[in-house]
């Protein structure tokens, strides 16, 4: 429900901003793709659990199927696109972050097994490396944005002086993608422990990823984050 509201709002704002600055087709396409992707992922998971519980009960309800395998691949692709958007917001054009995203996606796809709930020990490290690559990239981007917020805020104290402490903290958390980082770290931890809980966490993580990225579109709907743009001049 939150995704639907934020998706419609972000698309409306993107088109309104496009009338004045020129429509950013890249953000429109990625927003639509992420919304369709997370909705499809939710539908696959919901249909599987609802159908299985109704027909066979609890026994075997979490067993992987070919359709669930497709959902796992879709989750990896959504994670990949989300990382690319974070790169885009930071004006990162270097091949190193992009390479980390691509290798992370490859690791996750290769480590997906369509017949088991929990990965075999031999494949856990392959999948873990994929998530760690994405996590390291996320840490780097979050640090860049937080540092830039601090740098720019020193020259804009008269603009933010009226905001409450809580509002400032929330603004920094959303703007810096720190919530995205927290969710990703939590999921990677559960994945590394090899617990079935990571399957449940994965369902929520996909939705929260997209919610956070839609919120970024509302902050900077037409172009990458302006704070990083200011910092790049130096």
Automatic annotation (TrEMBL):
Keyword Membrane included in the entry's annotation: yes
This protein's record includes keyword Transmembrane helix: yes
UniProtKB keywords: Membrane, Transmembrane, Transmembrane helix
Transmembrane segments: 23-46, 66-88, 100-122, 128-152, 172-194, 200-219
Name assigned to this protein: Chitin synthase export chaperone
Organism of origin: Laetiporus sulphureus 93-53
Species classification: Eukaryota, Fungi, Dikarya, Basidiomycota, Agaricomycotina
